[in-house]
Design brief:
The chain is of the alpha+beta class. 46% of the residues lie in helices and 21% in strands. The protein is built from 10 helices and 12 strands. The strands form 2 sheets. Strands 4, 5, 6, 7, 8, 9 and 10 form a 7-stranded mixed sheet that branches. Strands 1-3-2-11-12 form a 5-stranded antiparallel sheet, with helices on one face. Helix 1 crosses helix 9 and helix 4 runs antiparallel to helix 6.
Length: 323
């Protein structure tokens, strides 16, 4: 369910994407656009929260990706809380030092923006080098688990053509408490630019490719607590745009038809969010628990999914279905 104001902004963004895809020469994308236009048109409500019905589950659908992101974030937070390690600032003073962990936030990209037709290869390069980064001895021997969330945004740099995009990664590294942030940062800043440049050159044969800004932040959260880790997890799983923020809504409105056609094609079949290590195992356990919880809920409660509201294109909001 989404708060009614968030549902409104997300539906408007959804219309923008669908109207972009309908202009694609790919018949499949045209069908996806029609599915997206019907997605969430009807909804049930609980107080100020909207539960969109008949969702399309398309990755490029702002409504479905927003809901999916919230589900993944909730699952990831539960998984972190179930690990045999405890975040350092949440641990009791008697908790063994070897069973404590810290969190490190990471933002990485492939260097300068790429053209739309290079998007899929750039994503593959990012995912490939991320996996290699985690296997580096100086990282892997301290790593407990990780979360990788990939995003794509259209570039609006005045020095670049409009038909360019910036695929990037937001990551969470859960590492043993004895890990030194400066050492991890140095390893990433030394390895990533060289590795990602080699991969881009291999795929695109562009030796002039710049990776000067390919490493963004490598930092601690405010504190090593489940609450502060949750803030980062919710941020990186939100999909590319956070429709609660006016700045993000404005940027989304500026995206072009060609961008959405290219982005929709690029992410097809891609794993845009992935887990590794103990965190991956914990997420699998949480998913099994969720299945049991849903089965128990279905057994004890009947779910009323009768539509109570319908989206009005004229008013740009949900209205009572009887109005």
């Amino acid at each position: 369910a989404l708060h009614d104001r968030l549902a409104k902004h997300t539906k408007l963004a959804q219309t923008h994407v669908a109207q972009s895809l309908i202009h694609s020469h790919d018949i499949t994308q045209g069908q996806h656009a029609l599915d997206m236009m019907s997605c969430g048109r009807y909804a049930s409500t609980t107080g100020q929260f909207i539960r969109p019905l008949n969702r399309c589950h398309r990755r490029s659908c702002p409504l479905c990706s927003s809901i999916k992101g919230k589900q993944i974030a909730r699952r990831a937070v539960r998984a972190v809380d179930q690990l045999r390690f405890t975040l350092a600032d949440d641990a009791h003073e008697t908790h063994p030092a070897e069973r404590r962990m810290i969190a490190i936030k990471v933002t990485l990209n492939s260097g300068e923006a790429c053209s739309f037709d290079q998007l899929r290869d750039r994503l593959r390069a990012l995912h490939k080098i991320w996996a290699r980064l985690l296997r580096l001895t100086d990282i892997s021997e301290h790593l407990i688990g990780s979360l990788r969330a990939s995003e794509i945004t259209q570039s609006f740099d005045n020095n670049r053509p409009l038909d360019t995009a910036n695929p990037h990664i937001h990551g969470l590294l859960l590492m043993r408490a004895s890990t030194d942030l400066e050492e991890v940062s140095a390893i990433i800043r030394r390895y990533w630019p060289k590795a990602i440049k080699r991969e881009v050159i291999r795929v695109e044969n562009n030796r002039a490719h710049s990776v000067v800004k390919s490493v963004g932040d490598v930092a601690y959260p405010y504190a090593h607590t489940i609450d502060d880790v949750e803030v980062w997890i919710r941020y990186i799983t939100k999909s590319s745009y956070d429709f609660t923020k006016q700045e993000h809504r404005k940027k989304h409105n500026l995206t072009t038809r060609n961008y959405w056609v290219a982005a929709d094609a690029a992410i097809k079949g891609m794993r845009m969010i992935s887990f590794s290590g103990d965190l991956k195992e914990a997420v699998s356990t949480v998913k099994e628990h969720e299945k049991d919880e849903r089965a128990q809920l279905d057994h004890t409660h009947s779910h009323d999914v009768t539509p109570s509201h319908v989206w009005s294109d004229r008013l740009n909001r949900y209205i009572d279905i009887n109005d």
